[in-house]
Amino acid sequence: MTVSADDSLHDSGRPAPTARLFAALRLLRATAAGRIVGLALLVAVLALLSVYPLSMLLYGSLHSTPPGMAGTFNLDGYRDILTRENSITLVNTVGISLAKTVPSLALAVLLAWILARTDTPCRGALEVLVTLPFFIPPILTAMAWGMLGNPQVGLLNQLYQAITGSSAAPINVYSYGGVVWHMMQYSVPFLFLLIVDAFRAMDPSLEEAARMCGASRLRTFRTITLQLMLPALTGGAILSFIRGIENFESPLFFGAPAGIHVITTDIYDSINQRSPPQYQYATAVSFVIMALLFLIVLVQWRLLRGRSFATVSGKGYSPGIVRLGPWRWVTFAVCMLFFIVTVVLPVGQLLIGSFFKFFGFYQWDMLTFEHYEAVFGSSEFWRGFGNTMLLGLIGASATMVLGGLVAYISVRTKWRGRSLIDAMAWLPWMMPGIVLGVGFLWGFALLPRAIPIYGTIWALLLAYISLGTPLSVRVMSSAYAQLSFDIEECSRVHGASWLTTMWRIVIALSWPSFVVGWVLVFFGIMRELSASVLLYSIGSEVLSVVLLKLWVNGNAEQVSVIGLMMMVMVILFRWVQLGFTRRHLGTL
Amino acid sequence: MSNVVLEKVSRTFGEFAAVSGVDLRVNEGEFVTLLGPSGCGKTTTLRMVAGLEQNTGGRISIGGRVVSDAARDLFVPAEHRALGMVFQSYAIWPHMSVFDNVAYPLRVRRVGRSDMRRRVLEALQLVEMADYADRPAPALSGGQQQRVAIARALVFEPALLLLDEPLSNLDARLRAQMGSEFRALQKRLGITSLYVTHDQEEAMALSDRVVVMQAGRVLQIGAPEDIYQRPASRDVANFFGSPNLLPATVVSCARLSDADFALSVRGSAWEGTCHAGEARAVGAEVLVLVRPESMRLAEGTAPATGALSGRVVQSSFHGARRAVTVEVHGSLMHAEVPATASLSEQVTFTIDEKAAWALSA
Ligand SMILES: Nc1ncnc2c1ncn2[C@@H]1O[C@H](COP(=O)(O)OP(=O)(O)OP(=O)(O)O)[C@@H](O)[C@H]1O
Ligand SMILES: [Mg+2]
């Protein structure tokens, strides 16, 4: 929006002679052959990353045999979807996602209100703590909660039994509740991050006007604050709902053992757990989930069209801070409790689990370092660690460069075809990791034998870049949108070439966003499980796959050790990122 | 009877005193303006009256009822004070129509449907916005939003209307028009108004009385003419335009009435007579305030007694008049002359002694 406003200003406000000069410059740019080649290359790369796997999904869903084998084309895959079990799977998918979105939204609004609009002590630190769970790979908390809430030997149940003396085990994470609960740990901070700025930036006089009209605080909150936030809240809720449908870890860890299936785990199972693997069926289901997501996105567009209010005040006022008196310690406790439950408990479990001989038997004489020795002595761990690091570094860099290019073209040029490029880069956003994994499985199998990419870590790299591109485009777009066009054109008028301008001005001004985006993409790669688990093969396992294998083999103790180390890495990265953002961008 | 009374009202933010010891009485039906430079505490004062900010010292009463008393820890919050307020940013709720915006205070007060409709339309008619009742609020221009904000503040017939720089977001022409329209409306309804602005012309044109503030304190309270022509201090005098302050010594002092004394003074460049608000001892040092428009261009070149002559160093055209800066004995003086006057390099001025005013040096 800012961009189009800039455009019109920039086109109408310039005096005629310079306008002619710039028109000439543009023409020059438009006829350059190099640009066309570059654009074609970019389109090809994006096509490989998004259109190719997508069209392979269509191909695969009609193909009767697994990838790479001769077969016929039929609709069996789609026919197999129409079963009673699958309607339950669909209801589960939608129901679980709804069941986690609604309470998450309520909690996120409460946290955003506490941290943006009240005088709760240590708000800055609390904000960092409350959003931390979002950055922890879900596989880690899933395993930690699998141990904490285990109905037989879980620490929480042991504690409950020790305190009450009863032998009942009230907590069982292997249930609908467990799936919803695990998803909530991610959707609460996710929604919080989406809405907190809307709370913070709201013009306080909109609320004060209501109070002057005689409305109580509560009525003001209900009829003004919440109503004004409604577009932001709806948008956030729909995004969170989509993520719930795409979610893989929570239903895999807590649903599957209890016989609760959702679409993503159904895809996974039909490839990894059935013999022979039902590729055609899995691919057809992938197509169905994409259709579902597409529908939701359409609804979102319709709902939110023209429904965002410019409530931000021009004045640099801080919004009205509510003085809570002694209640501010209650709100403080609410935030701390959220942090303790979502971070301290799982990390604590991993810590404890890593030092005891057997998971579930916590006695002093069971203390041991042997799991650390086992992990550090295991070549599989080091290979996974190396692969994750390598893929993270290369993947994040490549993704950000690609995203930077796409964002530059779509935000700062008037080139024809820029919306095509933007759309192609956005496409993977609608593809859950597991679906993209299936698409790439087919795609790699159909490549000529001279390109032996399947089974190498480069297969994973392609999937990671594809998954990360929408995020990188978004980060870089907003960075570019903030740069005024004049800066760039001024530099070019003063004789700098396009490349020099790019390098000196554009990159110099947007590199902090690049770094922030880089870290986010790196986080994304480190946590990725659903595409990795389909695309890895022996030798190209990443850490999350190593963890999953250990977990499936019942080695909860070594899982704890590795999990703990990943957790330390995440917290370190987040800390560096926060410090960097504060210094260079002035905001969180 | 006083409608609003502020007694020794203060407000501190941490160590910083934003408002200190403000005393003010606003009478029934009066239009009082708080005027002062940016950051002097006008908004804070207004918000304390509104109940949006709690005073850390002093007492505020509205209509005879104490609404806030720091000593007794008494504080009536904004929603229970039943005051109308117009915000600088208008604060029109974008998710409601014009009608719903104005109806909000009545909904809060559970006014019946038909009664509410009538009163909302009446209020919109007052500000000539009745035709816009069904518009969504974001589809209004700044001036229209301002009218709706005034209608919303008036619809429940509050005893007091508070306005915080309501015109500052409008362009100059609309500002003047809205200002005089609002003043006419205020007089017609007889509603007590407390108005904040940092624009002196606006303050003088609209108000019954002006409160000049600086650094959280009240410098002077008085009718616009008094504040302008008979300021209590140099700071107040300096606040309006670019006054000339001539150092002089009192030669004689005669009492004309209780608060009006005629002085005859002698300065290095000039001697003549002026007025003062209090008796001055002979030989006392004073500063004589001469507004630029009280400087009269003298005909001819022969300097009359009590005249000043000097060299024109700057002259700028302002349409109806011309602002001239003249160097007299090494110091610069400002004068305003008719735009048609012909100026030579050397000019002579006489001073309108009825408008000359003595301040403490
Ligand atoms: N919430 C606050 N915390 C700390 N200081 C404040 C706060 N609100 C106001 N101040 C300070 O109090 C002083 C007076 O502020 P106020 O808003 O009343 O000024 P004003 O006269 O309305 O100025 P302006 O004409 O710019 O609106 C300012 O120095 C301001 O920085
Ligand atoms: Mg103010």
- Say what the CATH topology of the largest domain in chain B is: Rossmann fold
CATH superfamily of the largest domain in chain A: MetI-like
Count of distinct structural domains of chain A: 2
| Structure annotation, total helices of chain A | 25
CATH superfamily of the largest domain in chain B: P-loop containing nucleotide triphosphate hydrolases
- Quaternary state of this entry equals heterodimer
Task: Report the average pLDDT across residues of chain B.
Answer: 88
Q: For the report, how would you describe the main beta sheet of chain A?
A: none
The gyration radius over C-alpha positions of chain B equals 24 Å
* Beta-strand segment tally of chain A: 0
User: What's the end-to-end separation of chain A, in Å?
Assistant: 22 Å
Number of domains of chain B: 2
Describe what you observe in this structure.
The complex is a heterodimer of chains A (588) and B (361). Chain A is built from 25 helices and no strands. Chain A is mostly helical and 588 residues long. Chain A folds into two domains: 217 residues, MetI-like fold (Orthogonal Bundle); 220 residues, MetI-like fold (Orthogonal Bundle). The N terminus of chain A is likely disordered. Chain B is of the alpha+beta class. Chain B has two domains: 231 residues, Rossmann fold; 120 residues, Beta Barrel (OB fold (Dihydrolipoamide Acetyltransferase, E2P)), CATH 2.40.50.140. In chain B, the strands form four sheets. A six-stranded mixed sheet of chain B has the order 7-8-9-3-10-11, with helices on both faces. A five-stranded antiparallel sheet of chain B has the order 2-1-4-5-6, covered by helices on one side. Chain B has a five-stranded antiparallel sheet with strand order 14-13-12-15-21, with no helix packed on it. The longest helix of chain B is centred in the middle third of the chain and has 18 residues. At the A-B interface, helix 10 and helix 11 of A face helix 2 and helix 4 of B. The site of magnesium ion has 2 residues of chain B, from helix 1.
